[in-house]
Amino acid sequence: MFSIDEILEITRYDELELDKLGDELSALFVIVPDTDATFNFLVALLYTQMFNMLCTRADNNPGGKLKYHVHCLLDEFKNIGEIPNFDKLIATIRSREISASIILQTKSQLKDLYKDNADTIEGNCDTMLFLGGGEKTTLKDLSEVLGKETIDTVSTSDTRGQSPSSGTNYQKAGRELMTESEIFTMDGGKCIARVRGFHPFFCDKYDITAHPMYGSLLDAHTGDPDGGKKYTFDIAAYTRGIRKRNKAVVSGDTAVEVYESKTEI
Length: 265
Known about the structure:
Blueprint: H1 5-10, H2 40-60, E1 70-74, H3 86-92, E2 98-102, H4 107-114, H5 118-123, E3 127-130, H6 136-146, E4 148-159, E5 165-176, H7 180-184, E6 190-195, E7 201-204, H8 235-239, E8 242-251, E9 254-261
Parallel strand pairs: 1-2
Antiparallel strand pairs: 3-6, 4-5, 6-7, 8-9
């Protein structure tokens, strides 16, 4: 892969300064194709370096924590590729003010990616939010985790004949709090939240249109006569403020073109 000029160029020098993510308020967007896994190793390399560098940074800080909490929103977790030793990282990063939200379509995706370590990763997540789905393994596991409830059952008998008799029998029994079928058919506006130390919550999903910043979304157009264009990031306009400096020799005969940005956003 490193014989490809574009790959060689973006990995030749550091522009991300991953170790500084916990030192100042900032956001880093890592966007990869969800239909082509060719270059997923670059993302796995990025995450591995980020976790290692942030942990080292936290260990060197007073109290062993980062200045600002670093929250990793790992959407489409199955498609970003396997992060080496993630089962160990997820168990140790919390004490250093680092957390991760693993977002999956089904639980089987996690097992397919991390095999036997999937249960370890899930066990280190204090909160689970189920938004809906139909994958059988996910429904079965969730139904078991929710536990059972106690119900009263009443059975009656009535015998007719020469010696008629009748009776009523009262019993207590247990049933799943929600069966697989009930979870599968639950209302689309509902979700199930499970937080460590509490009973599960069956609650409403948050209405994103009620958020005070909803109108700032590009696809919202709420109260925006130009259709949200002012919220679009124009890469061409951004790069106009970048001027190229002379070539700088990095090591030996290897040279790279250095660019300096004069644009602030």
